[in-house]
Design brief:
38% strand, 73 residues, alpha+beta, Conserved Hypothetical Protein Mth637, Chain: A, 1 helix, five-stranded mixed beta sheet
């Protein structure tokens, strides 16, 4: 399954996943430094969908808050 994800790094709300009409919004506490936010997004989405972190792949948007993510269920 592929999803459009909007990431909010450095959020006090996180870790949290919210769904809306646009796709998923992922709030993570980690800042976007040295890939820490991307790693956190992978872990949070894996937990949300009940899969291993290795089953979550960021396809596009590694340096952006808007990402395209694939989850292998």
């Amino acid at each position: 399954m592929q999803f459009s994800v909007h990431v909010k790094p450095g959020s006090r709300k996180g870790p949290l996943v919210e769904q809306d009409a646009e796709g998923l919004t992922v709030f993570v506490r980690e800042r976007a430094v040295d890939g820490a936010a991307n790693d956190a997004v992978t872990r949070v989405l894996a937990d949300h969908f009940g899969v291993a972190p290795r089953d979550v792949t960021i396809l596009r948007g590694h340096a952006s808050r808007h990402k395209r993510v694939e989850v292998d269920a």
